[in-house]
């Protein structure tokens, strides 16, 4: 217990092309260095209002209940599941990726029963399977992953899924961690009851305050619970006092993280949400074309490709970990390997928010190509970089 | 859902002398504007190690299990209670302030039974009452508040309390939200099993990553639970994988908040923890002497006075809200009113971390005096400011 001697903070300067966090714009970093006001200061109340308005715009919703949860993405996820699922109720979750498993774990801890709708890792859910699962299990809550960070798969046909759920009087929770602000997402038009996200993906905001939106129908369920949710910290009926009209103390909000989220969301409004989706598709499209031209294979079929998270099959002759470490050591570029069923099989390359820039993609494709070649893979680096250049 | 038009972030420049957040040092703000590395980056793992080492120093502990929880102070509080209290177990909580009530609420949500040891708001617990409560209820877990932010009371005789608990084979959880880094706290010497805190009080760090420490005995209980804790996000047996030797992914840590906490804790190490306690006592002592010389009364008896949170009785002839609003509007100074049983009866004036500076205290006492006089209270402003000047 002697005084520790710890030096000034001097982290390396990375280019973040993994599954999150993504590169943060200097304006957002500057917002984080703004001196604090109190969490009950009238000036902060105004900042809260503005942040909520900007969040609604990004989610494409008019939901009053649109707030940043005071924690990282898994906190907004547990706020959604832990408040919606009451003890004894049944939640239907998908098996086609890592985050469906996390949904199941959270639902059980909330006191719920879990039933599953199956699809292989790397494929989306089939609406017919969802309908069958509803007919068989009559779940109260249905969770699905709009953008699966573990597999690089985008779930299409969301309105079809929500319609099946509503025909069975169930509530829909959508995991939009890797889609909000980067991939088309229309909470109101698609009739999603609850959607949550993380700030450090396509919003390019440091993690710590995480978007959540609930429609009135979902919030009525939360406010009408027979017993309180199992977390005090994440209890939305209590948070209602702070983020609602009353502005009463619940807990100290992460003030600086709200500053940063507000600034990140200002970028979304400045660019325009649809233009932002287009940019992600275009820039990530060049990345995808580049790695394919190099001779690599995407894990997801083209029609389910998720621009914000590109799952690329690890080619023969190399091990994922060595490539990832080499990219970090030699190029200061972060990408990640696979999780769960896809562990060792894929690279996960993010193309999110401020990281979804032509310069980043050129650099990444060329660095990845060189590294793979050095490690012994049979890749055509020149074809890859040329394709990127022509696509961008 | 039109594009919202939200201007640049321009909050007012406040002097924060309320119950938290406190003023943040420019060096910590600068740390928050540092570009991010990934939460699994080897460089971040080193930053985690350093932060843990610095936290141990501040807590005066060798506990391996010393981490920042990814949320604000109430998250570290719920991590402590939700992991230690198992369904069917009994937790003993105090009734002498706002935060004992929150402990009770969290314990019930964890599936526990709650029993109480009474003391009036504004007084500490009497060890004899604690002993009687143990003999009567034989609780499994005992929670107490070391520094009650709602009443300005410091709990003395902590070793006596922990000894009673351990004689009854119970675990002790100490709320150190408003003491860590500002008021004498010795986790190991005092035999506290679990202690939690917030960063935005005496550490003067923006909220978002909150200190928690558990000794091996407490961690063994957590790792030996029959059923998992009711929150996935705050499950310490899962966090063990990330903050322990394995460094495996659990959730995305709030990287920037960890940067800031590390920098705040570097200040603690530079100043020296005991010197820091002394500074808080001296600077807050001048504040206390000043308000008393002005004719105001402290709510807590001198022997239980909490330097970091000064509860001052609202004098006759004024209403607390009008004074607080006037201080904010005319002086940009934040203080707060009372909560619960003391609502309307006290002002809560913080003197924490970087806010515990002579300049802040001079300014606050003079601004408070002027404001009270304007609002019709019979106070001797000159005596107050003179006393502060001579004490500092």
From TrEMBL, chains A, B:
UniProt-recorded name of the protein: Alanine--glyoxylate aminotransferase family protein
GO MF annotation: an example: alanine-glyoxylate transaminase activity
Signal peptide (from-to): none
SUPFAM superfamilies: PLP-dependent transferases
InterPro entries xref list: Aminotrans_V_dom, PyrdxlP-dep_Trfase, PyrdxlP-dep_Trfase_major, PyrdxlP-dep_Trfase_small, SP_NH2Trfase/AEP_transaminase
Residue ranges of every copy of the Aminotransferase class V domain listed in the record: 38-335
Residue ranges of the region described as Disordered: 1-24
Keywords: Aminotransferase, Pyridoxal phosphate, Transferase
Cofactors demanded by this protein: pyridoxal 5'-phosphate
A Gene Ontology biological process term: glycine biosynthetic process, by transamination of glyoxylate
Pfam families: Aminotran_5 (PF00266)
Family: Belongs to the class-V pyridoxal-phosphate-dependent aminotransferase family.
